[in-house]
Amino acid sequence: MPRRPNRSTETRQLLAAMLQQPRSWHYGYELSKCTGLKSGTLYPVLIRLNDQGLLESKWMEPDRPGKPPRHAYQLSPSGLAFAREITQPASAAAGRKMAEAGA
C-alpha cells in the first residue's frame, strides 16, 4: 500500500519552492539553497515524493564537459495539485472547507 503524502514542514518548504516555477526542472542543490534544507533531509523528501508520483525525475546531461549528469525534479500534475493544497494558508483552506460544506 503506498504511503500517504507527508505534510511535514520540510515537505511544505520544498513544494513551496518548486511552486515558484512549477513546470521547471529543479536540481537538489538549487532546492537546498532555496529552502535551507540540508541534503540529509532534502533528498529523502525528494525520493519519497518521487516514489509517490508527486514528482517526476530524470537525469540531465551537464552544461559543461567533464561534469557528471545531475538528477532533476519537476512537479507532476498530481504533485502540483498537492503542492497547492498543502502550501496555501490555513485560513484559505478553512474558508474553502466551509464553502464546500455549505456553511
Topology (elements, then pairings):
Blueprint: H1 9-19, E1 26-27, H2 28-35, H3 39-51, E2 55-60, E3 70-75, H4 77-87, H5 90-101
Antiparallel strand pairs: 1-3, 2-3
Helix pairs in contact: 1-4, 2-3
Describe the structure.
- This protein has a 3-stranded antiparallel sheet with strand order 1-3-2.
- 53% of the residues lie in helices and 14% in strands.
- The protein has 103 residues and is of the alpha+beta class.
- It starts with 8 loop residues before the first helix and ends with a helix.
- The mean pLDDT is 86.
- It has 5 helices and 3 strands; from the N terminus they run αβααββαα.
How would you briefly describe this protein structure?
The protein has 103 residues and is an alpha+beta fold. It is built from 5 helices and 3 strands.
